[in-house]
């Protein structure tokens, strides 16, 4: 009986959502875009001790001013200025604009760039870039000196705000070529209460974007939400 109870307790513990963790090391994070994603990630990371700089075409807009009030010690600037001192740059704009926005930020050599975007068209169904390239691949091509990582495209802003609301751990898949960059993005995600899964190199970003399309499609066609809760095991 003791063995059964112990196993059940371990299983229940494994399904508990992760709690937010204050950053051990502060990053300067430029968040390009002040829509739903940027408006959640910025305040949450700011509350955990990171320095946030919002990149907006209209940094003096009332919407941005309201966002600054929710983000301790945050500032705002036009995108090309917001990234200058950043160690991490978050692309949080519509997927169709991501490549051009990234290209317009100046040289991001040596910086970690997080691509949170999905590319889709609700009127005509899901679509993707022509050819074999992914959005994250296009961003990497536009910023060859940056360490680009695909992440956060498989969770809504609602889940970003409170992953524990789902009742179980939520996994954020990652894809990128640089192991250190993925480790940094993983740490940032875990600070928010997420789990992460390293899917592979940047070429797997296309697969992570397909997961994003599945996530969005399911949410639009079902009464309940789908969240990813990855588990690995070693096959005998």
List keywords for this structure.
236 residues, Rossmann fold, alpha/beta, single chain, 9 helices
Total DSSP E strands: 8
Gross morphology is: globular
Strand order of the largest sheet: 3-2-1-4-5-6-7-8
The CATH level-2 architecture is identified as: 3-Layer(aba) Sandwich
- Class by helix and strand content? alpha/beta
Oligomer: single chain
Terminal residue distance: 27 Å
Write down the Rg. 18 Å
Percentage of β-strand residues: 15-25%
Briefly note the CATH topology name: Rossmann fold
**Average pLDDT over all residues:** 90
Uncertain runs: 1-14
Fourth CATH level, the homologous superfamily? NAD(P)-binding Rossmann-like Domain
Give the helix level as a range of percent: 25-40%
Write the H/E string, N to C: HEHEHEHEHEHEHEHEH
For the record, the CATH class is Alpha Beta
Tally of individual domains? 1
A few lines on this structure:
The protein is of the alpha/beta class. The protein starts with a helix and ends in a 15-residue tail after the last helix.
């Amino acid at each position: 009986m003791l063995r059964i109870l112990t196993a059940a307790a371990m299983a229940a513990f494994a399904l508990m959502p992760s709690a937010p963790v204050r950053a051990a090391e502060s990053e300067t994070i430029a968040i390009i875009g002040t829509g739903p994603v940027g408006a959640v990630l910025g305040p949450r990371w700011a509350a955990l001790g990171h320095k946030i700089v919002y990149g907006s075409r209209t940094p003096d807009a009332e919407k941005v001013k309201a966002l600054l009030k929710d983000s301790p010690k945050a500032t705002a600037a036009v995108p090309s200025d917001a990234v200058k001192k950043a160690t991490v740059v978050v692309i949080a704009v519509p997927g169709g604009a991501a490549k051009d926005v990234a290209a317009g930020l100046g040289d991001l050599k040596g910086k970690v760039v997080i691509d949170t975007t999905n590319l889709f068209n609700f009127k005509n169904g899901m679509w993707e870039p022509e050819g074999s390239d992914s959005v994250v691949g296009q961003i990497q091509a536009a910023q060859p000196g940056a360490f680009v990582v695909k992440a956060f495209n498989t969770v809504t802003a609602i889940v970003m705000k409170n992953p524990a609301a789902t009742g179980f751990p939520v996994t954020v898949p990652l894809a990128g070529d640089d192991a250190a960059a993925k480790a940094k993005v993983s740490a940032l995600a875990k600070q928010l209460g997420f789990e992460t899964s390293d899917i592979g190199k940047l070429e797997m970003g296309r697969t992570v974007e397909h997961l994003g399309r599945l996530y969005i499609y399911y949410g639009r066609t079902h009464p309940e939400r789908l969240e990813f809760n990855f588990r690995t095991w070693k096959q005998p």
